Structures are given as C-alpha cells and as structure tokens.
Amino acid sequence: MGDVRPLPLGGAAVRRRRVSSVRCLDGALDAVINPYLLYVGLALGGLGVCMALPRRRVSPQVLGAVLAGLGLGVVLLGLGLRSERLPNYNFYIFSAIALGAALRVITHPRPVYAALYFILTILASCGLYLVLAAEFMAFALVIIYAGAILITYLFVIMLATQAPSEGELEALAEYDAEARSPVAATVASFVLLAALTTMLFGGAGDLRPRDGAGLDAPIEMMPQRAERSLHEEGLIAAGDEVVGVDAAAWTATLRSGEVVALPASARLTNVERIGHDLLAEHPGSIEIAGVILLMAMLGATVLSRRQVELEDDAKRRQSERLAAAGTVFADREANP
Amino acid sequence: MSVSLSLAQASLPAPMDGVTLAHYLVVSAAMFAIGLVGFLTRRNLIIMFLCTELMFQAAGIALIAFSRFHLHMTGQTFVIFVLTVAAAEAALALALVVLLYRRKDSLSAEEWAEMKG
Amino acid sequence: MVGGLAGMTGLTAAAAGGDGALAVGTVAGPWWVVLIPLLPMLGVVLTLVCAIFDVRTKAPAWMSVACLAGSFGLAVLAYLELAGGPTAVTFGFRWIDVAWGDGPGQRLSADFAFAFDGLTCLWMLFVTGLATLIALYASEYMSHDVGVGYCRFFAAFNLFVFSMACLVMADNLVLLFLGWEGVGLCSYLLIGYFYKKPSAVAAAKKAFIMNRIGDLGLLMGMLLTFVQFGTLKYAELWPLVEPYVAAVRAGHADEVPFLVGLIPVLFMVGAFGKSAQLPLYVWLPDAMEGPTPVSALIHAATMVTAGVYLVARTYPLFLVSEWALPVVAWVGALTALLAATIGMAQFDIKRIMAYSTVSQLGYMFCGMALLTSVGGAFHVFTHAFFKATLFLCCGAVMHGFAGQLDLRRLSGVGLMPGWRIVGLAMLVGCLNLAGFPFTAGFFSKDMILAEAFVTPGPGYRAIGWILLLTAGLTAYYTFRVFFRVFVGPVEYVPGDEHHGDEHGHHHEEHGEHEGGQQGPAPEAHGHAFHPHAPGWAINLVLALLAVGSIAAAGAYFVHTEHHGWVGHLLHGSPAEPTHEAAFVDAHGHGDGHAEAHGSFFGLDPHKAMYFVSSAIGLLGIGVAFGLHYLGRTTAATSRADALLPKVGPVARWAQGKWYVDELYDAVIVKPLWVLSHVLHMFDKLVVDGLVNAAGWLPRMIGRAVRPSQGGVLHGYAVQMACGIAFALVIVWLMTL
Predict the structure, then answer these.
(1) How is chain B split into domains, by residue range?
(2) Class for domain B17-108, per CATH?
(3) Which of A214, C204, C418, C641 could be cross-linked to C513 through a Cys-Cys bond (beta carbons 3.0 to 4.6 Å apart)?
(4) What does the pLDDT read at residue A146?
C-alpha cells in the first residue's frame, strides 16, 4: 500500500509545467470566463430549473432538466479552466447524479417519488464523501439518513396521502400538481447562487489541500492502538508494552526502552480519527446531541398522541369527496 | 485517508488527480440553491421539509470538503451533529405535519393562512 | 376734631411680624386695623354659610350690616387715633417674598400690610359708612329675593367691601392690585346678579372686560415701577421717586427717563378703566342693570372712586411726567362734558344718574390734575354722599313702582303720601349735584372750578370754561329729573317687574301707607296696581344720607389753613405735600395757595367762582323749571318736547349716546369676531389638520405594507430568501 501521497510543491511544480499551456490561456480566458461565462451558466441553470418545475399543463420538464445540466456543466467547465487541478472523474459522476436527483426531488409531482429520489441524492453524496476520504461519514449518511430519516418520511407521506378514489387512482393532490410562484423562487435562489459562485470564482475556493503531516498526531494518545498494530505486523513480542508513541518520527517506545518504527498499518483510520476528535474536542456536544435526540423522541411521542379534530371546512370537503367516491362506486356497481 | 486517496487517485492522468475546493463548493451551493427553490415552490408540507433536508445535505458536502482541505477532523465531526439535528428535526417536524394534516385533511401549506393581514 | 397725635403708636402686639423693619417715615400701627377688612370677610363667610343652609330670612342682611358697622366703627377709631400722625403700618402676614439675587432690584416683597394715613382715613370713613347704610337699605330693597339669592347678594357685597378695604388700606401696589381686581370681580358678580336676564349678563361682561383693559394698564405700570425702582411698597417708593420730581420741578424734565415717565400713563389707563372715563366709560351706564344698592355703592361712591384714589395715592409718580397730569385733566374735562350732554337726553332716571356719575368723576380727575388734590378728594367725599342719596331714591322709586324708571311715565312721586322722605332726600341730592349755593357739592365743585383758572397749564382756562358749561348742564338735567318725576301732577305707570305673590305680601305690610294712594288713572295690568311706599329701612337710610350730604358742607369750614377738613387729612399724605411744594415753586410763593394768582376777568377766581357757579347753577335749575315743570299736565310730555324739533338731530344723537357703543362695536368688536373666526378656521384646518395627518400617516403606511403579510408560508419564505440573497450580494460587493 502506498503511503499518503505527499502533495509537495515539487509535484505541483511538475504538474504546473504540464498544464502551463492551459495556464497561459488563463489570463486571456479569465476575462471571458469570469463573469460572463459564469453568469451565462447560472442563467441557463436557473431557466432550466424553472422549466423543470411541475405545472398543470404540459411542461417542458425534460428540456428544463437538460438545460439545467448544461448550465451546471458550463459553470464547472469554467471553474476547471481557471484552476490547474481538476477533480477526478468520480467527482463528476457523483456530483451529476447528486444534482440531477436533487432536481428530480423538487420537480417530481408525486411525493413518494420525491422521497425516493432523495435517497438517490443521498447515495450520490455518499459517493462524494468517499472521494473526499470521509468513509465513516459516508456510511453514517447511508445508515442514518437514507435508512432512518427517509424511511420515516416515506411512512408519513403514505400516512398522509388521501385514499385515491376509484375513478382517479393516479390523481395528484392539487397542491402537488403545480409549483407555486416558480419564477420568483428560482430568481431568488439563483441570485443567491450567483453571489456564492462569484465569490468562489473570485478566489475564495483556491485553497490548496494541505500536506497531511499532522493528521496522525492522535496516535500519541493511543499507545495500545500502536501496540496492536505492531503485534499484527509481528514487530514486537507478545509481552511488550508500548509506553509512548512519537507521531512525527513515526516510532513507538517500548517499555524496555527500545524504539521501534511503526508500520504503515499503524496509520489511523478515518473512524479512529473521527472518534478521537469527537471525544477529545467535542465531548460536551455529544452530551447535548444525546439530549436533543431524547427531546425529539419525547416530543414526537407527545405530539402524536394529541387529539386534533378535523376543521369544519375540511369536514365538508371530505364528505364531498366521499360522496363523489361513493357515486363512482355506485356507478361502477350499477354498470359493471 | 490513505485507502481512498489511493483508490481514487492512484492511476489517474494528471491533471485530474487532485481535488479542488471550489468544485465541491460549487456543487454544494448548487444543491443548496436547488433545495431552496424546492422549498419555495412546493406546497406539500412534507416535500417542503424534504427540501430542507436537501439543504442539510448541501451543507454536509461543504463541511466534508472543508475538512478534507484543512485536514482537520472537525468538519466530519460536525456532520455527525448535523445528522443528529436533522434526525431530531425530522421526527418533530413530521409529528407536527401529521397533526396539521389531521386538522385540515390536507397537506397543503397554503391552507394555513390565518395570519393574513 | 382731634389733632395730630404724633408718635402715638398704640398696641403692636401682633403687628410687628415679618422682618419688623419699617420704612422711613412710618410707625407701626395698631393690630385692630386688620379687623377693618376682616370683618367684611367674616360677613362673606357667614352669608355663604347661610346660603348653604338655605336660610330664608333676612338674617344675612343683619349679619352683613353688623359686620360692616363694626368695620365702620373701627374706621372711626382709626381716624381718631391715627389721623394727623405719621403713616401707621399694620403688618398682617407675609404674602409674597421672593428674591432671586442680592441686588436692590431683585427682591419682590409684598405683604398683607395696611397703611393708615390721612388719605386712607378719608376713604375708609365714607366707604365703610356708606357700605353700612346701603346694606341696611338693601336689606329691604332685596327682600323679595330672600333665599339663596339674598345670601349671594350680601356675600358679594361683603366681598366688595373687603376688596375695597384692601385697595385703600394697602401699603404696597400689589395689595392694591388685589383689591382692584377684587372690586372688579364683585362688580361683575353684582351687576350680573339677575343672571337670568340677558341684558344684565351682557352688562356684567362688558363691565368686567373694560375693567380688564384698565387693569392691564395698571399691571404694566406696576411692573414698570418694579423694574425702575425695585420696590412696590409706597414707603420705600416715594423716596426713590423724589429725585425725579425735584428734577421736573427744577425744570430739567429731560432728566427723567422715558420709562419712568411712562408709569403714570399706564396708571392712568387703569384709573380710566375703573373710573369710567373716556374712552373706557361705556360700561358704567350699562352697569345700571344691577340692583340699585349696587349702583349706589359701587358705581357711585366707592369702586369708581378707586381710580381717583390711585391717582391720589401715586401722585408723586404723576408729578414725574410733564404731560401726565394735563392728559388727565383734559380727559376728565371732556368726559364730564360728554357725559353731561348724553345725560340730558336720556329718559331712564338711573341711566341719567349714571352719566352724571361719569361726569362728576371727570370733575374729580380734573381736580386731581389741576394740582388741587384737596379739591378732588373733597369732591369725592361729597359726591359719595349725594350720589348715593340720588341713586337710592331712584331705587326706592323703582322698588315702589315695579321697576318703572322712565321719566315719561312717572310724575309727582314725591307728593304721594309715604314718599315725602324720598322726595326730600331727592331734593337734597339734586341741590348738591347742581351746585346750589351753600351745599356741599357747591363748595367742592367750586374748589375745582377755581383752580382751573389759577393753575398754569396747557389750556387749563379752556378746561375751566368747559367745566363751567358742564356745571350748567348738570344742573339742568338733574332738575329735569326732579321736576319730571318728583313734583308735578301725580301720575304713574307701573313697570314690568311685578313680583307675584310677594307683591301681595308687601301690600299687607304697607297697608297703612296705601290709604289714599289712588292717583288719577292708574294704568293697571290686569289687577289694580298700588305703588308701595318704602319701609323704615329705606326711609331711614335716605334720611341719614340726606343729612350727611348737608353736613358734609361743614367740612369746608374747619381747618381752613389746610383748606378744609379734607385738606387737613390729606396733609402729610403723598397727595398733598408735593402738591404744595410744586405749587410753591410754580407760583413762587412759600405759603400755600390761599392767595390766588391768575384771574377770572380780573377778579380773584376763588371769590368769583362763588358767584359764577351759583349763577350758572341757578340758570340751569331755572331752565329745567321752565321746561319741565311749568305747564306740565301729564307725565309724558313737557314744554321741552316743543323745543326738540328746533334742536334737530343733535338731540337724537345725544340720546343715542353719541353712538360711542356702536363705534366700539364696529371698530373693535367686529374685527375681533372676524379674527376669531379666522383663527378658528386656522385651528380646525391647519392645527387639527396636522394632527389628523399625523394619524392618517400610519394608517396609510399600514395599508401599503399589509399586502406583504399574506399569511401564507411561501410568501414569507420567498421574502426571507430574497433577504438572504440581498445580504450575500452586499457582502460580495463589500469584498470587491
């Protein structure tokens, strides 16, 4: 297994030479890319999203989706042209899926499908997390979000959907069929997006990933972890104890005073790092999170046991609907 | 960190072997904007809450990206708490939505306009 | 008369309160002086208690008479003990005392302190004396109104005497002003006594408002005095004024600052308002709407003399300005003439008497201005008696003939049985007013007339001739009244004020007087009208007053070195010494003005006046006799009517009071009405408009903003999103 690939300046310098041809275009392209390309891309995206929103009449949803995708592509292209490094293809795949599914969430008229598309979004995000080397969070996301929260949403959607009448099995509730003030919403959101992306284009996101030297520092607090790793690799005898670990030199000090170099498997995994961070730096937040969950559970229990009576207007509507359904049934029986 | 990095970037041609923060942030911002459009557009209460969850997702992506770039675990730890809060919020929100549905026999957010004027 | 008991201070047990520092030239007065105004105040309280308990007898009247008699007794005592000595100051209580600095002009101090000198004695004697007698008269005159109204009358009456006492006995200008306002208030209350009569209410308002105009002048004069001299106490003030008087006397009138010379002008305005001179006299004839005792006491004898008193009291200030006294003289003279001409053409006998009061007040002011304050004060004294007599006789006529006052409807009243005393008293009063030889009025008017031809001044000789002419007119119209109403064929038309059942009661009371009273053709109104003659109270008072009027002449013949009893009293008060000194320098003599300089057609004016004014008076009486007695067979007409067409429109104008009221109405009242309407419109449109606009604005804003609150969640959400986007854009712009 390779070590952490260092990201030294040397590599960057090499890469810089390779993309220098692209780079010297940067100056000329910059004037075109930012702001024109950016805003054209954003405008396209906004238009596409607006068109993709559900309407009663025939709506160009597919075309809208395509446009939205194009817009996103333009923005990312512009970003890519400006920087010298590009994320790998995994990033593009997962982000496309995530954004496409997200678009489908908001544009699908049926609530159940929206929830299912949301699950797809979560899975794509999970992929993005993996690309970003956050394995634990990726799996936690799937388990908690897709596995618990979304299932709850699905249950409630099904609970709260009115029973479809005989003649209109596939009918949508009136409130789902049509988007409300799509233009205003799209404009507001894309102005927000424009502000954010302009800042990114303006250089806010040009951080270089840092060298990962300090990441292994926690191992100094985990001598037994080092010991286990050394045992697995067979580098120490069964009775030896590790009394101290030096992360910078990547060595462990045994009780006998011997200094042993730590193997590569002693590198902390993501889970271990998260665990250490949680306990070492956010102990209070853990407690508070627990209390929040407890309160939510109690609150949900209390709320769901409340007796709420149907409002008069709603009673009237329900009876009308049932009457209509009843006549349909009566018709069906009369005319089989 | 080592596994994913090697997996993801082991055999990639340059220059597509790195990660840039801006890209991830653009994706996060786009997802946030889409979630916001959905929240403002849909009338179904549950779908509205779903869109807020979408916005949480976007925040999560941004957090993880920052965590990777600053090489600090707090970003990921914070996503754990975001997940916690999202779960709590979902539970209570859905309980309330159920109550609201029971009152009006409809999931439309526009039924609740008693504060007009 | 007891001579001066110089240095007699009396008991000062409770008197020397306060800071005890008396000003130069004064001594501490006896404590019982405080009771002189306090007894009428006690009367007020007692009558108000009677009002609360709804007493329906004449008890309030007897209580008032008792209190006022007590006050009179104390005034007499004060005269006996204090007159002729230095001014005696009795300290009552500390009233105003504020200081805002340590400098001389930075402390305003006015106490309820009463100063008694000769001038005060004179005034207090006739004020309290007349008040007592008139209260006794009113006890019968107002008897038809027994009940709350009766108590109200006597309460206001007593309050008036209290205020007048404060005015006269004050030792500082502030207390004088308090009394001044108080008498104005009581005048208003008493004129408007019959408050259900619109004309009475209007008259009361008119009197009060015109008084107020005068009061403003007086107040400004007081303020100016304080600003210039730093004090308002007489005793401290006169030494400060002395240098200016000396400067004027020495001929350096330009050394007197303008503001100091303005003070007497302002005081003049106040005096003219209170004493009904031009141009503020129109309220006095209308004030006859009040009950007759009120007219007699307030508008004949006491309140209207307050202006004359003010001039007398602040005489040094009048000497400071070269032209203050001449203005007073001319105003007085013109008023006298004008009022006399109006009086000649009126038919309401009370109105005629009112105009004669205005005219005689003009005489008094002339007297003051012609450097004979003795003459002016003596005329005040005699006029008080005979004018009160005249008014009370008119009141008796009114009382007996159900309010009839028109001299074309009454005749021969003095010849009816039971009316003898009224007739005689009227005759005495008329003789005094006309200046018949050897009456008190004759002597007092004489002093003033003579002085007009003696004192040097701008046009003073012309004033003398005007006053002589006025004396003739006075004699004429006075005896016109007498010859028409009190003698001649007995005939009467009753007035409109039948008092219903009370009238019947009085019939039983005075049954013995009505034995043979059916005059020829009584024009009864439904039932036979019997005039009821006055009772014992009225008769007694009229008799006393008539005797007093005659006896007042005797005051001329004592203390001749000071020109009479009045002069003796005034000697030592600020009204007199400066006069003498001023006169000395003006005439270059050193021994008073027993010898006259100036001449009347080559004769010594004093001696000449005895004859000239007698002649004029007798001429007036003779004309009245000829026109209004001889050949008169009915009440309504006389030989004068035949002369009217020859006089032309002048008579009509005189009867219309020279249309002065109408002039005031057009020039002052109407523009004020217009202005008030304009301001009302301004208030309604602009001021109210602004306030309404201030209320309208939030409503408009609310109406404009309300649509944004749709109540729907999405609307709010969109607004929030827009807000966030906007904020982000701003942040981005700031990073540029």
Answers:
(1) 17-108
(2) mainly alpha
(3) C418
(4) 92
